[in-house]
């Protein structure tokens, strides 16, 4: 930060996540603590709701509450997924002004900065470290650089100044290291909303004091698969058939599928609310043999309920994983008596291919590190709680204990240590 009169000593770590965000402060004496970002809660959903009637912007849980209660306006989630794509520079109307999605990311980061400042009498720590995935975009280094540059520009516009970056799995490792009493070879598994990232690193009391940790980091890897991809797959397979996905029309052909894939993708849903997109959906009427299915699709789009549908799928996924039993998908608002559910068997079946790719990336990381196996697997990131994922990791690393970290705050805390 350029003006020292507006800063305090220490480091602010910000985990800007696809689904959830967090911030932590490391004091000059070396301790790190999470900061309250929303009504005392340290984690905040990465969501904004623009109330079109009151011209007010809501954030986090409040944004989701406004949307689910039917307030007039627009909900935006999974903005991080736009980084590295041309969409991040696209303009959209917000409170009667045209702004880019990068500007909206800046708006969210400004909120994080403001909430952080409340703990420091209006000031910010002098150093800010932002987390980033191993790959914003798989296999495209130039787009990956563009993604980081766009996030850095958004942070600067948010008043955070010139920020530095640290890989999110390495940040998680630094957080875990604070609890270790002996040297441990750890595979960090960070499964977030948009990416799955891994690092093999040597941790322990004799390493934590080093200024340069390069030699302790044996390998990193990542793949652009995360919790929103799990939600997308479950939405497509468990709910979209009720709206016409794979439905055979009078011509003997399936209803065109692109609308169902976009409607199941958090960061694309808002594009289906435009007059052009709704007109295209209305035009699908002749492709349906069952008009009731078409009416369901139109209701979701015309009443802007796509995010509500996606949230219902996400909650059922969490319920099926944590309860190990069938969990209904709440669709009563769409049509009385409309039933859908997610079971543990559905999670295994529908997520099998995605989880196989995630686990293969973890195995690649261990191979790149040149070790036989890690001493422990450290789990962080909200999507690492998924039972099906932990079972898949247990099959791949049968003799390696799994240690659960702070799923939503560990990366932010580690960034403050970075």
What's the structural blueprint in terms of helices and strands?
Elements (H helix, E strand, L loop, with lengths): L6 E9 L4 E7 L5 E3 L9 E2 L1 E5 L4 E4 H9 L4 E5 L13 E4 L2 E4 H17 L6 E9 L8 H17 L6 E4 H10 L6 E8 L4 E8 L1 H4 L8 E7 L3 H12 L19 H6 L11 H8 L8 H12 L3 H18 L3 E2 L12 E2 L1 H26 L6 E5 L6 H10 L5 E3 L5 H8 L1
Parallel strand pairs: 1-10, 10-11, 12-17, 17-18
Antiparallel strand pairs: 1-2, 2-3, 2-4, 5-6, 5-7, 8-9, 12-13, 13-14, 15-16
Helix pairs in contact: 2-3, 4-13, 6-10, 6-11, 11-12
Keywords:
six-stranded mixed sheet, globular, alpha+beta, 418 residues
The gross shape turns out to be globular
Largest sheet: 6 strands, mixed
In whole angstroms, the N-to-C terminal distance is 17 Å
Low-confidence stretches: none
Portion in helices: 25-40%
Count of discrete alpha- or pi-helical segments spanning 4 or more residues: 13
Rg: 22 Å
Strand content: 15-25%
What is the strand tally? 18
* Structural class by sheet pairing and helices: alpha+beta
Overall mean confidence score, pLDDT: 94
């Amino acid at each position: 930060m350029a003006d020292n009169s507006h800063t305090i000593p220490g480091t602010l770590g910000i985990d800007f996540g696809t689904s959830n965000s967090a911030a932590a402060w490391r004091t000059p004496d070396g301790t790190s603590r999470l900061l309250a970002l929303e009504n005392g809660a340290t984690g905040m959903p990465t969501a904004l709701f623009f109330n079109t009637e009151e011209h007010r912007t809501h954030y986090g849980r409040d944004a989701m509450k406004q949307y689910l209660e039917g307030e007039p306006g627009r909900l935006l989630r999974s903005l991080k997924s736009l980084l590295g794509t041309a969409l991040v520079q696209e303009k959209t109307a917000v409170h009667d002004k045209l702004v880019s999605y990068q500007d909206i990311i800046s708006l969210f980061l400004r909120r994080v900065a403001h909430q952080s400042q409340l703990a420091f009498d209006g000031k910010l720590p002098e150093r800010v470290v932002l987390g980033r995935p191993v790959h914003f975009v798989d296999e495209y280094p130039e787009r990956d650089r563009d993604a980081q540059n766009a996030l850095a520009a958004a942070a600067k516009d948010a008043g955070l100044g010139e920020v530095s970056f640290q890989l999110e799995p390495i940040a998680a490792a630094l957080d875990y290291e604070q609890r270790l009493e002996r040297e441990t070879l750890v595979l960090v598994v960070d499964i977030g909303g948009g990416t799955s990232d891994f690092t093999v690193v040597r941790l322990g009391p004799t390493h934590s004091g080093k200024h340069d940790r390069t030699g302790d980091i044996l390998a990193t890897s990542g793949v652009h698969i995360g919790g929103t991809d799990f939600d997308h797959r479950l939405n497509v397979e468990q709910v979209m058939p009720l709206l016409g996905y794979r439905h055979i029309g009078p011509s003997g052909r399936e209803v065109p599928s692109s609308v169902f894939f976009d409607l199941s993708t958090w960061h694309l849903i808002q594009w289906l609310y435009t007059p052009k997109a709704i007109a295209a959906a209305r035009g699908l009427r002749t492709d349906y043999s069952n008009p009731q299915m078409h009416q369901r699709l139109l209701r979701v789009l015309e009443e802007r309920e796509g995010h509500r549908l996606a949230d219902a799928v996400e909650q059922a996924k969490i319920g099926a994983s944590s309860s190990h039993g069938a969990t209904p998908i709440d669709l009563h608002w769409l049509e009385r008596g409309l039933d859908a559910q997610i079971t543990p068997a559905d999670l295994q079946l529908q997520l099998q291919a995605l989880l196989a790719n995630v686990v293969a990336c973890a195995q690649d990381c261990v191979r790149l590190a040149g070790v036989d196996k890690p001493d422990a697997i450290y789990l962080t990131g909200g999507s690492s709680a998924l039972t099906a994922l932990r079972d898949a990791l247990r099959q791949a690393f049968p003799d390696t204990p799994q240690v659960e970290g702070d799923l939503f705050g560990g990366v932010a805390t580690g960034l403050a240590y970075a």
